[in-house]
Design brief:
globular; 2,3-Dihydroxybiphenyl 1,2-Dioxygenase, domain 1; alpha+beta; nine-stranded mixed sheet; 5 helices; about 25% helix; binds cobalt (II) ion
């Protein structure tokens, strides 16, 4: 039996009460403590916000939001609505913007992080720590969407900064 078949059989052989109780998103493997969900957004740090808005709105024909200043996060954001997920254009705001360094290294901009939904962020934090995946803060914080978030270190995530967002 292939490892995948074995995994699928193991999951399917679990009591159905566990599966239904923890049902969160159909494409994840049902587990007890926490479950990964949908892609929330891909965040792109941009060097020229008006130019990026024009790219997504005029060239690509996407629905984009107004500019939104988030001083507590040190960014001005524009959300590009892609239905199931969003692209967030991030532009530095203030002197201590967390994306300033990124833009110094990536002059043309680039993908800054991805964000994936989770059903229980506190359990996710405990579990990720136990699995030696480094997190960028001790506790969850309230993110740009008013929901608790935490970032996992890119060195432990294939070079990608991964944000987890409680839904
Ligand atoms: Co984000």
């Amino acid at each position: 039996m292939s490892p995948l078949t074995h995994l699928v059989r193991t999951v399917l052989s679990r009591p159905t009460s566990l599966l239904s109780k923890q049902a969160f998103h159909t494409s994840c493997i049902p587990r007890k403590e926490w479950q990964i969900g949908k892609l929330s957004h891909v965040a792109i740090a941009v060097a020229d916000l008006d130019k990026s808005v024009a790219l997504y709105k005029d060239a690509f024909g996407a629905k984009v939001s107004e500019k939104l200043d988030l001083p507590e996060h040190g960014v001005t954001t524009v959300f590009v609505d892609l239905g199931d997920a969003k692209i967030e254009l991030l532009y530095p705001l203030g002197k201590k913007s967390p994306i300033k360094n990124f833009l110094e290294k990536n002059k043309n901009g680039g993908i800054h992080h991805i964000c994936i939904e989770v059903d229980d962020i506190e359990n996710a934090i405990k579990d990720l720590r136990a699995k030696k995946i480094r997190l960028l803060s001790e506790t969850s914080k309230i993110g740009a969407h008013g929901k608790p978030i935490i970032f996992a270190h890119p060195k432990d995530c294939d070079g990608v900064l991964v944000e987890f967002e409680q839904v």
